[in-house]
Amino acid sequence: MQILWTLYRAFFMIxxxxxxxxxxxxxxxxxxxVAKHKWATQEEILDYFxxxxxxxxxxxxxxxxxxxxxQKGIIGGIVATLGVVSPSIVIIMVxxxxxxxxxxxxxxxHAFAGIRVAVCALIVAxxxxxxxxxxxxxxxxxxxxxxxxxxxxxxFSPVYIVVGCALASVVLGRRxxxxx
Length: 180
Known about the structure:
Elements: H1 2-17, H2 22-36, H3 42-54, H4 59-97, H5 106-134, H6 138-153, H7 158-179
Helix pairs in contact: 1-2, 1-4, 2-4, 2-5, 3-4, 6-7
């Protein structure tokens, strides 16, 4: 029972203290899951992020589910997922009930502008950290640039890009292994 409470509390804090969704949560998820609680290794958390990106839903929710499941099976997955979404449910209800009356107030608009800037910085920091730990060969850089162009500039579905990059990695990885 203690581990379930710890899972809920840890993911509740992640959900309550990070703004901007899944990507902005990545540094805090990594700190809590890998460094503090040691529920996963660095490699496992990167795998969870990758799988979470490829599956329907929010990356933080998917990651919470994976980690909870690893710790305590189905009930652990449910508890961790409830932990990460509970703050959002409460915050959304409070915002819907209260903040809509104040959206015309200039300082509220400025506060949200500042929050958006902070979220952008958190996302950039996550991207840099993920790139440093995952981009190890010239063809990784090529795939990353191609994926960015195809998704960001051409509007391709991320699902196709992820599948395409996985297939390209199998082919290029095997080809590079043969030449080494």
